[in-house]
Each structure stands twice: as C-alpha cells, then as structure tokens.
From TrEMBL, chains A, B, C, D:
EC number: 4.2.1.1
Role, per record: Reversible hydration of carbon dioxide.
Domain of life: Bacteria
Recorded family membership: Belongs to the beta-class carbonic anhydrase family.
PROSITE patterns assigned: PROK_CO2_ANHYDRASE_2
Protein's UniProt name: Carbonic anhydrase
Cofactor note as given: Binds 1 zinc ion per subunit.
Organism, as annotated: Puniceibacterium antarcticum
SUPFAM superfamilies recorded: beta-carbonic anhydrase, cab (SSF53056)
GO MF, any single term: zinc ion binding
Cofactor: Zn(2+)
PANTHER family: CARBONIC ANHYDRASE
Binding site for Zn(2+): C47, D49, H108, C111
Catalytic activity of the protein: hydrogencarbonate + H(+) = CO2 + H2O
Length: 222, 222, 222, 222
C-alpha cells in the first residue's frame, strides 16, 4: 500500500480560503483556461528555493507563466540520448508545443545548490563527489562556471559570480538545443538571464554587450 | 556571445510594482530569510503548467514551500547511476538537507504532458516515441500508470485516471529512495498525493485506505 | 496542598481529538519544531477576549506567531525599574531573542477592558479607581487615549475611538523601548496597528499618513 | 508621527480567506457574540511561544476561551500595590467579571523563558540578572521553583521539572488572590495545571494527590 496521508490541516485551510476568494472571483477565467488550454507568454526557469517567489516577484496570475523549478535553475546541454531529462523536456514543451515568447533563467543569491557546487569543486565536500549524490551530480552541470570564477580571491564575490554563472551556463546550454536556437533566430523567442538578490529584493539582468549583470531599470526595460 | 535580451517591459513593470509594495512591506522578513537561510515546512512537486498556481492555491508566502516543477509532476525511481537527475536532486536536497516535514505531489486536470503520454502509449503519437523527444522519454516514466488504466473504455475517464496515476507513480517512486523511506518510517516526513481540477478549482487527495482520490474536506484534513 | 483538579471532560475530549487528527497528521513538523526551536515571523499582541480569535483570523498554524494576549492589548511605556512587566518581557523576547519581523497590535470592538476604562475615566466606576483593582490600574495605561477622545459627543463613536486609542497608545509606547526603536530604524521590524470588528468580521489598519483607521484592502495590503 | 505600516500581504491574504469562509459560515454566531458579549467557560494561561497552539489543542472556537499568554505562563503573587500587573488584571477580569468556571495553567516543553531562568539562577546568564532585563525580572517569579529543583543532577530532567514548576508556582500564586480563593472555595471555579510536550503532542496534568504530573487519560478526565 502506498504511503500517503491526508492533507495537513494548514494547507487545507489555505486551500479553502483560496477557493472562497481568488477562485470564486475568477471562476470564469479558470473555466476558460481549463477548456481552451494554457497559452503562457513566458517560461521561467528558477530555483526550488522557497525564498525565490517567482509568482510574487512577477505578479503572476493563473495562466501566465510556464514555470520549471529545479536546484540552482540549471539547464543541461542538449543530449538526445533517450535518457530522462526533465529540464530538457520542460524546455522542449514550452518552446515547441506552447511556443512561449520569452524564456527567463532566474538565478538568485544565497543559493544552497551553488554553495554546494563551490564546496564540491574546491574539494571541501567529498560526499557530493560520490556517484550516489544526486545533488552533486546535478551540480556537475555548473563545473564549467566554476572554472571561470575559481581564481577570484574574495570568497563572497566568488560565490556571487558562481550564482551568476548558473544563469550563464544555462543560457549557453539553451542555445545548444536546435529548437531553441531556431526559435531565437526566427525571432520567435528571446532569452533572458536574471539574478535576484533575496535580502534587498534586487534584480539584475545579464547584458551581453558588457558581459556583466546590471540592475534592471526603474522606468524602462533594461 | 550569449543570446540574451533585456527584461520584457511587462515583467520589469511587475517587478517594480512588487519591489515598491510587497518587498517594501516585508523587507524585514526577506532580509532575515537571506541571513538565516530558508526553513520550508513542505516540498511541493507540481507541473510546470501555467494554470497550476501552487503558490496561490496554498497562499504560499516567501520562505514557505520548496517547490519543484516539471512536466506532469513526475518523480523517477531511485537510480544512483551518476547521471543527471534533476528531480531526484531536488527531492534529495529537500529531504536530506532541508528536512521538510511534508512532501506533496500535486497533479492536475487537463495536463498536456499526461495527454501526450496517453497518445504515445496508445500509438497515436509516433513523434513522441522517438529517441530525440525529451517529452516522450520523460513521459515514459508514466507508462506503468498507463498499463493500469488502459482498459478503461471511456476516454475522458481514462485521461483523468492517468492524470491521477501521475501522482501515484510518483508516490511509489518516492518510496524507492532510501532517504525518503527512512524519513517516512522515522515519522519525520509524510507524503501526500493531490489532484487539482483547474476549471472547478477542485482538490482531491489520495486515500490509501480506499485506494481512491476523494475531495478534501471543508473543515478538516481529508 | 495545591488546589488542582483533573482536566474537565470536554477539554480532554477536544485534546484527544486533536492528538488523533491534527497532531498525527503533522507529527513530523511538530517534532522538528521541538528539536529546532521556534522561528515565528510575527508577534501579535491582542486582547484576552474569547471572541478575538487571532489564530483563526490569520489562519495561524503551529510555529507561526508569537502571541501575547492581555486585557485590551496594551503595551506599557518603557520602564526598566526592576519590577515585573510581563508585556515588556514578551516584547523584549520577541524582538531581541526571536528577532520577529512584524509586530502587530490587534485591537477589537466591544472590548470590556476599554469600556471599563471609559467608565472609570468619566467617573462612573469608582471601584476601578481603587488601588486594589488590577483591571483599573492596568487600564490606567489608556488614560492618555481617553484624554484625546473624551470630547467626542456621541457615546458609541467615543467608545470606538477609545478602542482604537488602545492600539495607538500601544504603538506609541512600543517606540519608547530602545530595542524596538532600533529594530524599526534598522528595517528589521515593522509595526502594525489593527482594529477588528467582531460582529461584522471587519479589519481596519492604522494609516499614519491620514492618522485614521481604514478597512484593509481586498486584494492588496492596505 | 507613529511608526506603522500596512498589513503584510500574507496576513491580508489569510484574513481575506477567513472572512470568506469561517466568518461567512458563522456570521450569525459572531453577530450574537458582538451583541450579547462573551461568556467563556474557561480561562487559559499559556506561554506566548508560537508552538503552543492553545486554540488548536483544545479545538477552541470563537467565544470559548479567555486566553492570557505571557512568557512561561507565569502568574505573580497577589500584590495590590497600585502598580500595573497585566496578568493579575487578566485573572481578575476572568474570575470576577466573567466568572469563568475553569482556570487552566498550561506549561510546555522546550520553553525558552524557563531555559533562561535556569541559566540565570545557576549563574550562567549575567545579562538576565540586570535590572533592565524585562525577561530576567519576569523570570524572577520562577525562582522559588528553581530552589525546589536545583539539586536534580540530570540537566534534562532538571529543565523538565522547572517547566512544571512554572505551572505549580502559578497555581500557588493564584490561590493568594482573595477572589480566586473565594471562587474555588465556593466551588464556582476549579484550577488545573497542565504541561504540554511539543514534539510528541503529549499532555500531562498535575495531580495534587500524588504531587506529580501524569498523562491525561484517553477516555476519561484525568
């Protein structure tokens, strides 16, 4: 028999509150979403971290964003080897089936996954090197980023750079997917790299012209 | 040079609105979350589908839920083969590092991934059978579920059953992870299977005693 | 020998019900709360009144709110005189030890303590003026509020204003505590004044810009 | 100008959920409570600790319990000296004005206030000895309890005993209030001492016949 328990009371209470307010006030739209299917404008790839509240930051409403969340917002390179690639499947579905217009990779400060990668790559976390460590193997994706930042002497700056590399490595890997590259070249899709500072509520975007992250503007895009 | 564009204006606008209101009103808490780290009570595994608005349904606030979202809310079986398993990494991080108390698998109606699986398994979607189809290979995870529902004659009922199988297969697979099993047996973790009906705003939970999904209660858990 | 009796049957029954349901469904979380300690996001100061159901109104779950309840939700001014100040001790513990992010003073309609204060201050309740009246001496804290509202001619309006003064006097007094002021100035703490209408289930917040209480919004804060 | 901010969004959301469900479903009762006043059957004195969820443990509904919460659920001795005694005021109001039938002192495990008292009394927390420490001066109330348990050699047992002393000292002090003693002797009021174990969800009651705390029964009172 499966191990499964009733919904904890606090979640049930929250759900009942949502049903009686947000759902009730938007019933017509939700019914239409169910009937007509979703038509999201953007895909967002962010971290599972509970402090990265994507839907809050972007005021997301039901039906707006196709959201994939994994550890450290990483996208692996294109590897059509028949194995299971959850992130690649999500990207494929968003770009090929849903034809989203924007694909945003959202990194963040204080990322536990990135911190683990830093420790692993610098030899301080042997348990993450083990074959059986899912987190370690997943963070292997960020090793190319580590190589680019490892010589930064200041520890805090180095961590911040690696968090941003998690965005850059993902953007690089995205372009190895033929369907992503084609959509970008056909101007049907734009890619965006962001980094969110949790404590200050900051948001920086990657500007390929300068090769740096810079605060997003207050009044205009970028 | 990387392909990356400035943040689309509508997202910048939303972010600026969030910064001036929600962030400002909760600055003290966000600073504390950044300094002290996250301590989420629950992990939620849900679909990337833009209509499954996890944070809205459960009134989630910053720091409350560790959320992994992939196509069709699937968890693969335990396979410590050194390859990249993003979902397994997320589960490992949540259970081992964060020690979440609840792990909720949230399925939903009108799921495009599940629909693709149904078509693929019944021979109607040869393109999903190809090695190069990431969505197809990902949905292979649900084949054991398809086997259990394929004899249901009514098409709509069959689809609904398969959507719920996506929850059940994931719950089964979760228990193949040694660290999940141990946490469940030590009463440090409870698993929960839910299915969300988008149009009606409904929520059903899997009750292992009956082997069926039933609407969650209005006043009490289950 | 101490005077103490067994738990009344109705409370025992309630507890047994809780243990078999809510506790059992949330055992993992409660164990973790016991081991790791509390980390409440907010402190709430409310009245002891049985009709002010703080945890219900805010859907509070175990571990979320540090709650101090006294007669008329009053906070005395800062008086480090070595005497016993239970409310000041609670505020100190919440702000200094627990570092809560929000401190909410929740007043309410139909408050018996405030009514007593009104009668006492207007000379209609001599028994409350006696040295031995604990309620009278406690309500002395609200005398500055009475002075500000006493000229309001309509009795019902006057009472309502005094209930709200119980919130304002407390907010004023809170800022006389050095550790509260410092936390507020360092943006580590925000203060909030609320007034709850019991019969209508209403909730108003104090807006310092207007100097008035106004209904909280339906969709956004304030 | 007073320092006060709008209600944080998460609390507003919770409130709106409550208004649309619990309030709406119970409107008639809440209106009556507002009109007729409260008539609580019991007063509960518990700790402010966010993990001591009094209303959950006893399935409390609006109007049932008059609840006073302070650090370590302490009641000071009767001291009609004209100074402000918030706890004594709450007890006076409950017994004299509301005429509650039961007065329950609810202690708990893992109490930060009791831990502070232990450290202070054993000389390990000089900052709590300072005149300006509100927590320290408040915990002075428990010094008689410390004297009775200080010779217990096992640290964990000693802490547990002191947590229970916080209940016993309060029960003793309650009987020094003339109006409490009179109500008890007239059989209009019963006193109850409880201790709640957070991790296990346990509940023990003080039995004056044995002088010990014992688990409350499963089927009958005590």
């Amino acid at each position: 028999m499966l191990s499964a328990k009733p919904l904890p009371a606090y979640l049930l209470q929250r759900y009942n509150g949502w049903k009686a307010t947000t759902y009730t006030e938007n019933r017509a739209w939700y019914k239409r979403l169910a009937t007509e299917g979703q038509r999201p404008r953007a895909m967002i790839i962010s971290c599972c971290d509970s402090r990265v509240h994507v839907t809050s930051i972007f005021g997301a409403d039901q039906g707006e964003f196709f959201i994939h969340r994994n550890i450290a917002n990483l996208v692996p390179p294109y590897e059509p080897d028949g194995a299971q690639h959850g992130t690649s499947a999500a990207v494929e579905y968003a770009v090929v089936a849903l034809k989203v217009s924007h694909l945003v990779v959202l990194g963040h400060s204080n990322c536990g996954g990135v911190q683990g990668c830093m420790q692993m790559c610098s030899g301080e976390a042997p348990h993450l090197e083990e074959t059986s460590s899912f987190v370690g193997r997943w963070m292997d994706l960020l090793r190319p980023g580590y190589e680019r930042v490892k010589d930064e002497p200041d520890a805090e700056t180095r961590m911040r750079l690696l968090e941003k590399e998690a965005v850059l490595v993902s953007l690089e890997n995205l372009m190895t997917f033929p369907f992503v590259r084609e959509a970008v070249e056909a101007e049907g899709l734009t890619l965006h790299g962001l980094w969110h500072e949790i404590g200050e509520g900051g948001l920086e975007w990657f500007d390929p012209k300068t090769g740096l992250f810079a605060p997003v503007g207050q009044g205009a895009a970028g």
